[in-house]
Amino acid sequence: MKALKTIFLINAIIEIAGGIVVMINPQLLLNNPASEAIVLNMCKAFGIAIFAMGVVSYQLYRHDLMSMRGSKMIALVFMLYHVLITFTFYGMYTAGMTPHMGAAGLHLIVSIVFATLYFKTVGIEDTEQNHRSNS
Fold it and tell me: 90, 121, 124, 129 — which has fewest CB within 10 A?
């Protein structure tokens, strides 16, 4: 479960930091200083949502809610979120809306790290259950 707890801590750090940056400077999200006011306000709203996800993730980490039923499902939802954001930002890059793939690359790396930690946790639990059933 330590690996699963690490998922929530990493996610909290990334999302809280990213949310604060996007709320303060929303044009960084698309790296387009000439964005219209509506786009900047939507980016700010997205920053608030990012920040909130980070706070939820931090609470899962801090209050040791790993024993809570469904914590593995929550980790899977966070992984799915990062995979979908990867595809979204890659689509924005290919459409010319952002000049680089920085956000897509970051979320892809986070997805891979989360998947590795998640499957490490699942593997440990399967081994422990097999050991108990053989005893």
Answer: 129
Which of 2-11, 26-35, 75-84 shows the lowest mean pLDDT across its residues? 26-35
- Report yes or no: 117 and 3 within 8 Å, Cβ to Cβ: yes
The alpha-carbon radius of gyration of the chain (Å, integer) is 17
pLDDT of residue 102: 86
Q: Position 76: which residue type?
A: L
Contacts of 107 (CB under 8 A, 6+ apart): 82, 83, 85, 86, 89
CA–CA distance from 72 to each of 7, 10, 45, 110 (Å)?
A: 10, 15, 28, 17
pLDDT, position 33: 67
pLDDT on residue 28: 81
- CB-CB contact of 66 with 5 (8 Å): yes
Q: Dihedrals φ, ψ of 94, to 5°?
A: -70, -25
